[in-house]
Amino acid sequence: MTPAGEPSLLARLLGAMGSGAVHCPASLAQELDVSEAMVERMIQDLVRLGYLRSARPGGAGACGACPQNGSCGASRSGPRAWMLTDRGRRAGA
Amino acid sequence: MTSPSGEAHTVTVALAGQPNVGKSTVFNLLTGLSQHVGNWPGKTIEQKVGIHHFRRNGDSCAMRIVDLPGAYSLTANSLEEQLARDFIIAERPDAVAVIADAASLERSLYLLAEFLFLPVPVVLGLNMTDVAEQHEIHISPRILEAALGVPVVPMSATKNQGVRELVEAVDRVIRGELPYAPNRPAIREDHRTVLQEIRALIAGRAPAPYPEEWVALKLLEGDGEVARMMEARMPGGWEAVQAILTQHEDAMLAVASGRYEWIGRIVRAAVTRPRTGQITLTDRLDRIATHPVWGILLLLGLLGAVFWLTYRVGAPLQELLDAHLVQAAAEWLRGALEGAPWWVTGLLADGIVTGGGMVVTFLPILLVFFGILGLLEDVGYMARAAFVMDRFMHLIGLHGKSFLPLFLGFGCNVPAVLGTRIIDAPRARLLTILLVPLVPCAARMAVVAVLAPIFLGPAAFWVSWVLVGLNLGVLALLGVGLQRLVLRGEALSFIMEIPLYHLPNLRTVGIAAWQRTLEFLKKAGGTILAVSVAVWALSALPGGEIETSYLASAGKLLAPLGAWMGLDWRMLVALLSSFAAKENTIATLAILYRAGEGGSLAGALAGSLTPVAALAFLAVQMLFIPCAATVAAIRQETRSWLWTAANVLLLAAISLGAGIAIFQGGIWLGLEGR
């Protein structure tokens, strides 16, 4: 159990996100001393709870108007990414 | 109880688990042909129910197995999750078998943690233990069982191992022959009082069979379904609950945190992972590919390799097509149309065949270029490229979230501009939109891929590499400048998924390259053809001589500007025609240099520019104002003609400034004329 006053795993993940650096699940797993599977599950949960949101440009409907839509790899399988929401920023501060 | 089939005992067991943990395999093994597939009452989601027959001490027994929809948690985020939990609570099966993926146990434990609060005994089926062993992940079922307080059965359903033991464990738990004392996760310590307050307020109000603690936790998690249920049952008392929930908005984080601490403790106790020294091939490759310095160097090296391969394979094919298809067709047309009015011959042979056809000779270059990029994408490298570039952009102070849309710009600037919608801050978004046209899109790079070898011969490879670097360098400098002026102090980060490397699927790569090339051909048949015809008409009218044409008259007005860069008016017109579509540069040059009249484009252009002027021309081409489609997207996204015009003017100034600087610098260094 996390000792009282020590930030929880989720709070540490959100705190790392507020640092201005770019992370991947592997680097976060190393930083938090947990497995990548756990980090991925935490990301999923933080999205569900409204602390993170998807940052994939294609997800914002951006590719719909592009003449290359449908054949462009970035819109189909570009890297998935997540960023802090306002709530996430407050919690990670 | 005796079932209609005369069996001694029939119990109901729910089969639960996340998607892709092998739950369906377990269900099929257990029920075989005795499955009934229907829909969940009132829903369109498939419900599968089957009977499993087994023997206990010689008696014939039956288990009714209900396959619950795959769910990641039991909060009503999706219909599947709601159906799963409603079934457990309302139907009260005799037991739940939660199937977990042993290779990524943490993910499954979260769902298990939620089941432990429901009034139904749970057995954990630890599936895919063989896969976990392959990854050198060793799990002790006995320690896991002790830590969880629930029976754990190791399994490998695809090999039909452990399924009988799972049935036996479920049967024994139902009959009370196995101990069941679940060790449930606790809410984070700083919110325990809040949980107690909620529990006190809802005491006696939660409808049976909903457990009070579970209801209180779901309220703190912000579960809308449970909130609506309790609001309806607490007239006059709900406001107090609501006030606590509003005051403790972060309680949901405390509930989830408690579960993760619990998962962490259990995994630490029961799971042994490969030693740190044992690294996978992906780890080994990523030490270089995602390194802040080596990663950038690798990216630049790969970019160079892409150009090198494109030139080595695509350029000779392009020359062959040019000589044997376009020129031959233009020559044949001239012969066939002998005696026809000059403008008919000119329009068909010089305008359509030479102008439009020249662009079609891009095909081999594009196929090679898109094929190699598709290959890099399919093996999983492009995500690494995005990762290292983003780190690089942070180093130069650019807004972190800007990278993803900018990354799209390498394909086409239009989706990149539209992709800036992911950026919340208006000023950061505007800055990114202004920078997008500096990302060299595939069309610009294809133009360079065709022209650089013509102008610069063997040096084309290095020049192309430098030109891409020039674009990114200007983007970085402009980004730093604008960042300091507009976005001072704002630093945000994000998490980016890095997939495992894998062998490429050549069919996928081939299809993607072909689809991209087809898109290009469609453009060649529309915009490019129309502009080719217009350029030819303006270059031929009124008298059929290019030097006395309307285009020459207009183009010569630009001659003084061109002189600063060592370019004649035809080169400037070619640049201007790229506003309709970048590929028009080639078509326009082919028309203006009369490439179809007995010589190839390479032959017509070779020697038309000095190396320094050619470099200046290519630099302007790479940095020039974006195409009309991108300008329209910028106008749409900024909703400002002013910003759109400012962007176009800024890029015109940067590109022409770069061209002038390169040419004048060449003269100053004594390179011009060599």
Summarize this entry quickly.
Chain A has 93 residues and is mainly alpha-helical. Chain A has helices spanning 9-17, 25-32, 36-48, 73-77, 86-92, and strands at 52-54, 81-84. Chain A has five helices and two strands.
Keywords:
heterodimer; A: 93 residues; mainly alpha; Arc Repressor Mutant, subunit A; two-stranded antiparallel ribbon; 8% strand; globular; B: 674 residues; alpha/beta; Rossmann fold; Helix Hairpins; seven-stranded mixed β-sheet; 30 helices; 10 strands; elongated
Unreliable spans of chain B are none
Query: Major sheet of chain A: size, sense and barrel closure?
Result: 2 strands, antiparallel
The quaternary structure here is heterodimer
Number of helices of chain A: 5
CATH class of one domain in chain A: Mainly Alpha
Question: Radius of gyration of chain B, rounded?
Answer: 34 Å
The total beta strand count of chain A reads 2
Percent range of helical residues of chain B:
55-70%
Instruction: Specify the number of helices of chain B.
Output: 30
Q: Quote the distance from N terminus to C terminus of chain B.
A: 101 Å
Query: Span from first to last CA of chain A?
Result: 22 Å
Write down the overall mean pLDDT of chain B: 81
Shape of chain A: globular
Largest sheet properties of chain B: 7 strands, mixed
Largest interface by Cβ-Cβ < 8 Å: A-B, 64 and 77 residues
Radius of gyration over C-alpha positions of chain A, nearest whole angstrom: 16 Å
The portion of residues assigned to helices of chain A is 40-55%
**Looking across the biggest beta sheet of chain B, what order are the strands in?**
2-3-4-1-5-6-8
